[in-house]
Design brief:
By secondary structure, this protein is of the alpha+beta class. It has one domain: C2 domain (Immunoglobulin-like). The protein is about 15% helix and about 50% strand. The protein is built from two helices and eight strands. A hairpin with a 4-residue loop joins strand 4 and strand 5. It is elongated, with a radius of gyration of 18 Å. The N and C termini lie far apart (about 45 Å).
Length: about 120
């Protein structure tokens, strides 16, 4: 699976954010799975869990299950911490393939909504 260029973080007061990604299958896992499934005669739908977590506090911020054909657009909404920079990790976990999980680190800069509105005046 290939993760497209991440879109920017959009923030709405107070301290909410969303993260959007375009997920695309490279087809290699599907070919491998087709070989395995033809041998076992089992039908299995490929599914992915898209998760945002905070490794520092070991907390889960958002999770969504996605059925991925060739491509899927995924939006995850989550609540950020207090103002400042936060380091999060975006995880892609397969429920069908071992060893296919991926993770990407990203940062979110949270500004205080009150200071942002006073800056724009």
């Amino acid at each position: 699976m290939v993760c497209g260029n991440p879109s920017p973080i959009y923030r709405a007061p107070p301290y909410r954010a969303c993260k959007e990604h375009i997920l695309q299958s490279d087809g290699l896992l599907a070919q491998f799975a087709a070989t395995l499934l033809s041998e076992s005669k089992a039908k299995r739908e490929e599914g992915w869990w898209v998760v945002i977590g905070d490794p520092k506090s070991n907390t889960l911020l958002s999770i969504k299950r996605v059925s991925l054909g060739r491509s899927a657009k995924v939006r995850l909404d989550f609540v950020c911490g207090a103002p400042g920079r936060h380091n999060y990790t975006l995880y892609f976990m397969s429920d069908a393939y071992l060893g296919a999980d991926q993770e990407y680190k990203f940062n979110v800069d949270v500004e205080d909504a009150a200071s942002e509105s006073s800056d724009s005046e």
